Protein 1
Amino acid sequence: MIHDFGIVWSERALLLSGLANTAILSAISAVAALLLGFALTPALMSKRRAVAWTVRGFVDGMRCVPFLLFAYIVYYGFPSFGVRLDNWTSGLLALTIYNAAYMAEILRGAWAAQPREPIEAGKAFGFSDVRLFRRLILPPLLLSAGPVIGNQIIQIVKDSAFLTIIALPELTHAASSIQSRHYVPFAAFITAVFLYWGLCLIIEAGVSSVGRVADARR
Amino acid sequence: MMAVAGKVLDVAGVSKRFGELEVLSDISFQVDKGETVCVLGPSGSGKSTLLRCVNWLERPDAGQVYLNGLQVGINGAGVVMTDRELSRIRTRIGMVFQHFALWPHLTVLQNLTEAPVQVQRRPKAEVRDEALALLSKVGLLEKQSAFPAKLSGGQKQRVGIARALAMKPDLLLFDEPTSALDPELVGEVLLVMRDLAREGRTMVIVTHEMAFAREAATRIIFLDRGRVIETAPPGRFFAHPETERAQQFVQRYASDTAGRQ
């Protein structure tokens, strides 16, 4: 067994590059999904029914599709329509679009729960448009939605493992090639598990620091 | 219609309806510099809506509002103002809210400096010094680093008043500033408001505090079912209300007050 971990250790460069790719994938799609979620949220809450229903349909649809299937569709299905993307672009796109639906729903819930009066006070004090959103709507929203957004980012990290099926060289892919090359499945996969765990701990540390900031204001 | 010269606020024929319900009908009044006008009336008489029509938080269906001769909500070309244009004129009107409406993610001091720095673009250091002076004026200097959630209702409302003053507004609007407070906390807020009246700030106050209105107001506007029923100095309004509805209103409050004491 020790010997097996020794083999994994000898392949550490591969594992670390897998870890780095997982981190990059997750970070880019988390930020993109959050931004896209922000763009979708007002549409979800729109008074125009057609707009609200269309976005609602997208959000509910995404939440009912298994991510693996969605990744297949983007990578193998899109070329039927003449859209041929490389595995990195497909992976990022799939992760982003899929999770944007969740982010939009998270933000809609948090937004609806925000008290209306401080925002109205902002208007009365001369805030409008972008400044109102950036200074007075966004910060309380992020503070209250922080923990749930953190959970979703952890979900993104885990979903990214599926992208091994489109040959994206992320952490699961790295562990899997080490095991097939050396026949050390347990050592390879358990090492990957611990590395995922480490990533999640970092995210959780971020979430709890947001939580501390929020608690001081409650 | 032209704005009346020399008036800080001129409300001319403002009407507002919500669906079938006519909340305000043809309201007109002016406020001179340094006046403390108290708007009284039964619940649902349209007092808060009137106040919100002044700074166009609620858009009037008809009528005009002028602040120092400048029309609110309609620009020089006679078109409804954009949010940005409206924002500029709103910075000259301070507002104090029934439920305080402080910004929860900012400290007490930041609540005061936020709009002057971000909207009025005044220098940070200067705004900060003024804000600290305002906090000590409302007796909350030691709470400058606290977040609103950690304050009592009375403290929150005093911050709310200081926040409005930090804008150096031409006009202060108070929307039932003590209605959400526990009875024992009302006094500290009224004390601050009395000081402002004495200093000659121009204020329009919607309130149910009759004793305060009687003592601090320069003029009472009595509203009922969306109409101005009576306008009089407080002495005359409370001693000899002219209309029957005002008489009933004053009597009811007199007996309430007697009952409480």
Protein 2
Amino acid sequence: MNPPRSASGASPPGGQRQWPGKAGSTAFAGWRRILRGLVPWGALLPMALTVLVAYLGATLWSLRVSMSSARTFPSDDFVGLAQYERLFDNERWQLSLQNLALYGVLFIVATVVIGFLLAVFIDQKVKGEGALRTVFLYPYAMSFVATGLVWQWVLNPGSGLQQAVRQMGWPDFTFDWIIDQDKVIYTVVIASVWQASGLVMALMLAGLRGIDDELWKAARIDGIPTWRVYLSIVLPMMGPTLATVFVLLFTGVVKVFDAVVAMTQGGPGTASDVPAKFIMDHLFGRANLALASAGAIVLLLTVLALVAPILYARSRGRSA
Amino acid sequence: MMWARKIGLITATLALAGAALAQKPPAPSGPKAEVIHWWTSGGESAAVKTLSDAYRAAGGQWQDMAVALGEQARSVTINRMVGGNPPTAAQFNTSRQFFDVVEQGLLNNMDEVAARDGWDKFLPEAVLSVIKVKGHYYAAPVSIHMPTWIWYSKAAFAKAGIAAEPKSMDELFAALDKLKGAGLVPLAHGGQAWQDNIVFAAVLANVGGRDLYLKVLRDRDAKAIQGEAFKNVLLTFKRLQGYVDKASPGRNWNDATAMLITGKAGVQFMGDWAKGEFTLAGQQPGRDFGCIAGFGPSSLYIIQGDVFVFPKTSHPDSLKAQKLLASVITAPATQVAFSNKKGSIPIRTDVDASKLDLCAQQGLAIMKDKNRQIGNGEVYMTPDQNGALADILTAYWNRNIPVEKIQKQIAEALK
């Protein structure tokens, strides 16, 4: 294990660096201190500007547009919450929200569980670890537009898995979820879990490798079963890793689009529709900027409503 | 930098060598037109080439700007207009997609060309109703597609013992039953929203007829939508769903056409672009497959198509280029050449039909009767209304929803 490092990382012990010959000049040192204070700000400025102008600005602009009657072009009029009323009267939008909730819960739970199990499995010092890691991480490195298409072929009952198993001698085998109104969203979950599990595995594995060996030795001496160590000691210690994983997966859920478009195009009918697809359809194809913006704002508010309590809890936890 | 220069040098050398081998192209002159369009597939590119050749022959310079997918191409056009750097011409559908652009005053009108070439005389009413806004001509039509052809496989029909081509909706259902009995897929259908919509439009035109069609899609008359006649249309539409195979959802249209080509399925509702698939497979209309535009002597010819619009630019030459382009692409010879490659029919009926194939000739003959021409949904409704209708129809096609509820939803969405 590496020796613990101080927060300032690269700076040598002893703090302030001394410059030969200049140590006496206090005025110069003062300037240097100010300059040093400014450098981080200078480094942060481009990103801060991007956030303020591009993200916050665009959000406010969307909010404004969502309260107008804009079609192809933005418009200056004000129609209050009319677009939001229309949005929530829309069955397709309601369905897409339900789909997103179902997809989100299943996807996050399944990905975290499978990703963790894969990480534990690789952590057992198995042979060919490098190769396995690559295999598991590979789906994440490929564009979902391409792999989604492959999934579509695999799941297609006429040409994919179902047909293959039937030809192998089980003529009654049925796996046609992708054309089933009520089950199609699960196929999107399956494909997404397949894609994201590798990433979770990589993150979790890094977390597991960060656990001190002494801990394992101590647990072994106490005769605690391995699964129990993972569950009751290691997992709670991996809080920061878990937080990262959740944030990554959560953003993945909210913006899910490519998986649905590549696999089902929102179908059959509108059965696997998601908010991002609804918004994109209305933004470009249907030239309804205002309704699309209203959808985007609702999505943003949903995210804030879910994330704000977590952030609040964390800030309280830190100050306590 | 060094590398870039080196590569530039190599390219220049190659180009020089190429130019020396090939005939040296004429020095660029004449009005330059940058054209955004979404014709990117093999057949479509060949069709565009007929346009660019005609434009070059007329003395212009054609700068091709192909963007895949209509939606994408249109958003590129609109973004460039808003950004102040518009193309010389841009493709839209024969629809209300560009009405907002007209309203914002971003387009040049082609009144001069329209008056000189006499557009009013030879363009179908449905096309005119879209390109003419408040008395000005804002777009030049390029093609007319008919989205609701009924294609059938002669091999499948023979196998199912169907002797004659269906002449009515009842006969079509009888044929579908026979196909089902013969163990074939009666209706080859790709379960995607836009394809469900094509089936609906075909049923509305053939079962509902001209008056109901216009009442529902153009006037958006709530009474007609809630009425018995339209209910019958919806029920017929839903009845057709019973003839598709289980694997239909999500299938692409050309895969459905392939089922006809291989004789696995009997019938498909699809636009005239499906003809390209048959042709590619070496099949011929009348011999291997049949095309039905509609049932009865007054069946409708639904018009869907493409137009070019001409954005206002600061470039002095571009208006000249736009006028030349508008005139060239609507000329009879260009139209025939383009249609043959594209699978569409010419925008005018005063062309030499003998060069067109059997189905296109049949279509052109119907087009000669003004009362049988009608626009598709896009001609009468905004993209937004169209989309809302499509959402409801695809839900109805895929789920078991009471027809009255659908009628109410459509009336609500088209209000």
